[in-house]
């Protein structure tokens, strides 16, 4: 028999809906994309910016959907032979199912936010916790108003460790999402000038990131970057939000989790640190000082969750850069090989500096060259020109030989 994520009765009760047609008794998964859904999954017909899921309900049924969650005002447009769960609002129903999934689990939950480094940190957390027990984590960058409830709704009841990524580009977004996730541990990787035009200052961005404190479970812990310029403000905001414990990480010797030594190689990074007074040495299977920095928060979250720290460190050696975030490709050119480092997922001052630093740390054989291809950094407001100009120094320090710029 197929493993059931939900029974249809439990799903219908969770979203306060009615069924139409012969819905299947067991639901093996949750999908919002008819192209990738598998037989037995529930299809939620969410209306997005470009597509309306109701236009793909027939395709979902043909792929073997156990049921489709659809809006009451669209039911008459759908085939009468379908298997439907009918609700006033499909996205609201997905949120309700996410809350029900959170309510039924006893898992230790970690939530990650920050201006940069969320997805790679989430992936390190996933690897670390998977070595310690049944782990559920968001896929790709499912960190927005539909990605977070979708990830929650997909969480099996028997999960022991849950890892969630929470993003934002406007004030108030994190608060509503973290209220669903209700983490025991909240990590803020860093606060930088990202989406600056929506906030006006980096301090305002820090305040928006601090919304993650509002959803912490009683007795929860905030893990903050002691090396970030906004650390003191974030610590103050955590105390203002009555967070009972704040744990710091970074290269500062007084940080609760501090880096003692790091060696970055072309394809990996090796580090030694003290994690809440426990000495550790470990390897990350991807290069970059920024990954090492955030791995400190990962190991802190593991320790605070009561998982086995020694066991959790080992799989970090298998860590690979997520797509578009430092992924490497070997190219065979007419005059010799080239390494393409793909950092195309996003561009902001912090991620640009990290990418340029990684390029500078990548060895070359002369007459080989380091070449940077840079696109515009968007949503920086009035500071845009100065923040673009400020990349000149990192490029010089990284000994980049040639720079191509695309954009205004």
Concise overview:
It is built from 13 helices and 20 strands. It is an alpha/beta fold.
Number of helices: 13
Question: What is the CATH architecture assignment of the largest domain?
Answer: 3-Layer(aba) Sandwich
CATH topology of the largest domain: UDP-N-acetylmuramoyl-L-alanine:D-glutamate ligase
Unreliable runs, pLDDT <50, ≥5 residues?
none
In CATH, the homologous superfamily of the largest domain goes by the name: Mur-like, catalytic domain
Give the distance, in angstroms, between the N- and C-terminal Cα atoms: 57 Å
List the domain count as a whole number: 3
Write down the overall mean pLDDT: 94
- Please estimate the helix content: 25-40%
Radius of gyration: 23 Å
Question: Proportion of β residues?
Answer: 15-25%
Strand tally is 20
Q: Please, what is the oligomeric state?
A: single chain
What is the strand and helix layout of this fold?
Blueprint: E1 6-7, H1 8-14, E2 18-20, E3 26-27, E4 29-31, E5 41-44, H2 57-62, E6 67-71, E7 84-87, H3 90-104, E8 108-113, H4 118-130, E9 135-137, H5 147-153, E10 161-165, H6 173-181, E11 185-188, H7 202-209, E12 221-225, H8 231-240, E13 245-250, E14 257-264, E15 269-275, E16 278-284, H9 289-304, H10 309-313, E17 327-333, E18 336-342, H11 349-361, E19 371-375, H12 384-389, H13 392-397, E20 402-406
Parallel strand pairs: 4-5, 5-6, 6-7, 8-10, 8-11, 9-10, 11-12, 12-13, 13-14, 19-20
Antiparallel strand pairs: 1-3, 2-7, 14-15, 15-16, 17-18
Helix pairs in contact: 3-5, 4-9
